[in-house]
Structures are given as structure tokens and as C-alpha cells.
């Protein structure tokens, strides 16, 4: 039996700005029902890779395919119907309700200048319900917690009805309770059949939710099973500090900063 086609794939992809590559030779395959965690040091190119995969930034070489279609042949709305982006939670500038925020995810499905219809509101409400925050629909999006805002941004991505969801550090600046909530929802989305790509600076999150990890470093991008790639040696080399991966009595892997540099 042949392997299923990945929902999102990059082959020999080169990324960068003004035709100057910052990373090249990137091969990536994201399948339905899976979470992929992207790790790499600050400034290595994770956000640049996301923007290139989403078609927001032109690639410098190689190919990206979304649901088997070459990204270079897709219009913006076509790409947006296949891939949704969840930026880091930001407070925003304008006062609107959480429902209005989620309705923005319907833009790619509306004709030019068309207003959302009742069906769009239903889809937006269903997205809020999936994330367990339907009760926030009429709340001011500026007056909810950081964790609730992150869930609302994920709901906006769901309302876009794309099967590929790309999230930029979705748990950054969240407290432990909200981190657990958001990570649980990410896992649940994958279990419902989405392909989820998440960047993080916390390798433990990969142990908690990922089916595979992608490591972006100066030599390129390596993809593989979480436990194979996230070893003490590999993480120490990646971040330039002594990092240890240990296993708790209950079998969970934890990541420990073994020394404070300079001491
Ligand atoms: N608009 C831009 N034009 C030119 N160079 C840029 C632009 N945006 C980012 N860069 C550079 O590209 C490199 C990769 O940046 P990017 O934001 O993709 O890294 P990152 O891995 O997401 O970092 P972090 O983990 O700190 O968020 C950096 O050297 C950055 O300075």
C-alpha cells in the first residue's frame, strides 16, 4: 500500500529575504492527524519558514505543496482555504467581540466585499464550541485572558476550514494552566484529522503533543520521531548550553537546564 499524501509538504525548500537564503534544503511532510513541533534557536528562521509555507513570503528555491497542490499555483484565498495561521496571541488594537474575531476566519470563503452570512456565524460559533469557549462569543476580545485569546485565535483558524493549521509559539506567555489547555486542544485537533505545525522553544511540549519534530539549525532542517531527535546531546548542541532529558517515574520526559552558563 502506498503512503498517504501529506497534507503539507516541502521539498528542497530554500527560505530567506531578498533572494538571500537563510536556510535551504528543507524537506518536510505533515500528515493528517499529526502534530509536528518545529524547534530551533532564536533567529534561525522558524517564522520565515512558516511564512514561506503559507505563501506569505516567496520561496527562494524548492517546492511547497498543500493538499497535493503546488503553492505557487494557488491564489491567496485558495491557499487560505487549505492553510490557516495562528499568530502569537496579541491584544489587538480595536474593540470587537470574540465572535467577530473568529468571523474574520471566514474571509477566504466570502466573495469580494461580501458580508458574513448566518451560515458563517454558525461555523464561527461551532469553532468556538470546539475549543470550549462558546460562552465568550459576545465578550470584548480585548478583555479576555491571554489563554482565552489564544484559543479564540485558534477558533478563527478553525472557522477558516483549512485542514492544515500553523501556529507560531501558541503557548508563549501563557501560564501553566493555559498552556495545558492550549496543548490539549492542539492534540485534540490533530486527533480530529487536522495537520498541525507548531513552533516552540520548549522541547517538553514536543514530548507532550508531537508525533514528530522538525529541527531547524544552521546545517538545515531535520525531521523525525520526537524521542529520536530530542536527546540531551542534540538539544545541548542546538541551544549551546548543557541540557538534559530525563524520564520521570511515570514515564514522562522532562528537559532540564543542567547548568547556568557562566557558572
Ligand atoms: N523582513 C525581514 N527582512 C530581512 N530579514 C529578516 C526579516 N524578518 C526576519 N529577518 C531575519 O531572518 C532571520 C530569521 O528570522 P525569524 O524571525 O524567521 O527567526 P525565528 O527562528 O522565528 O526567531 P525567534 O525564535 O526569535 O522568533 C533573522 O536573522 C532575522 O533577523
From TrEMBL:
Gene Ontology MF annotations: ATP binding; ATP hydrolysis activity
PROSITE patterns, sorted: ABC_TRANSPORTER_1, ABC_TRANSPORTER_2
PANTHER family to which the protein is assigned, alphabetical: METAL TRANSPORT SYSTEM ATP-BINDING PROTEIN TM_0124-RELATED, MOLYBDATE IMPORT ATP-BINDING PROTEIN MOLC
Domain ABC transporter: 8-243
Protein's organism: Azorhizobium oxalatiphilum
Any Pfam family hit: ABC_tran
Single GO BP term: zinc ion transport
Keywords: ATP-binding, Ion transport, Nucleotide-binding, Transport, Zinc, Zinc transport
Family per similarity comment: Belongs to the ABC transporter superfamily.
InterPro entries registered for this protein in UniProt: AAA+_ATPase, ABC_transporter-like_ATP-bd, ABC_transporter-like_CS, Metal_Ion_Import_ABC, P-loop_NTPase
Name of the molecule in the record: Iron(III) ABC transporter ATP-binding protein
Biological classification of the source: Bacteria, Pseudomonadati, Pseudomonadota, Alphaproteobacteria, Hyphomicrobiales
Keyword Transmembrane annotated: no
Source domain of life: Bacteria
Amino acid at each position: 500500500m502506498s503512503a498517504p499524501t501529506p497534507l503539507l509538504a516541502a521539498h528542497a525548500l530554500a527560505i530567506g529575504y531578498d533572494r538571500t537564503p537563510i536556510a535551504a534544503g528543507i524537506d518536510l511532510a505533515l500528515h493528517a492527524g499529526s502534530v509536528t513541533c518545529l524547534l530551533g534557536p532564536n533567529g534561525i528562521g522558524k517564522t520565515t519558514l512558516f511564512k514561506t509555507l503559507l505563501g506569505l513570503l516567496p520561496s527562494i528555491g524548492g517546492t511547497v505543496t498543500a493538499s497535493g497542490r503546488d503553492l505557487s499555483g494557488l491564489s491567496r484565498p485558495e491557499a487560505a482555504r487549505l492553510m490557516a495561521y495562528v499568530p502569537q496571541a496579541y491584544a489587538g488594537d480595536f474593540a470587537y467581540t470574540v465572535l467577530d474575531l473568529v468571523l474574520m476566519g471566514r474571509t477566504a470563503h466570502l466573495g469580494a466585499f461580501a458580508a458574513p452570512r448566518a451560515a458563517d456565524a454558525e461555523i464561527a460559533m461551532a469553532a468556538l464550541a470546539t475549543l470550549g469557549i462558546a460562552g465568550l462569543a459576545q465578550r470584548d476580545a480585548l478583555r479576555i485572558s491571554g489563554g482565552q485569546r489564544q484559543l479564540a485565535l485558534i477558533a478563527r483558524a478553525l472557522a477558516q476550514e483549512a485542514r492544515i493549521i500553523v501556529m507560531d509559539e501558541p503557548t508563549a506567555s501563557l501560564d501553566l494552566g493555559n498552556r495545558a489547555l492550549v496543548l490539549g486542544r492542539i492534540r485534540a485537533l490533530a486527533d480530529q484529522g487536522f495537520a498541525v505545525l507548531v513552533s516552540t522553544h520548549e522541547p517538553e511540549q514536543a514530548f507532550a503533543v508531537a508525533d514528530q519534530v522538525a529541527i531547524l539549525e544552521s546545517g538545515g532542517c531535520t525531521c523525525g520521531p520526537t524521542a529520536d531527535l530530542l536527546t540531551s546531546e542534540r538539544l545541548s548542541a542546538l541551544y549551546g548550553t548543557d541540557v538534559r532529558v530525563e524520564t520521570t517515574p511515570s514515564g514522562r520526559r522532562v528537559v532540564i537546564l543542567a547548568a547556568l552558563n557562566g557558572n
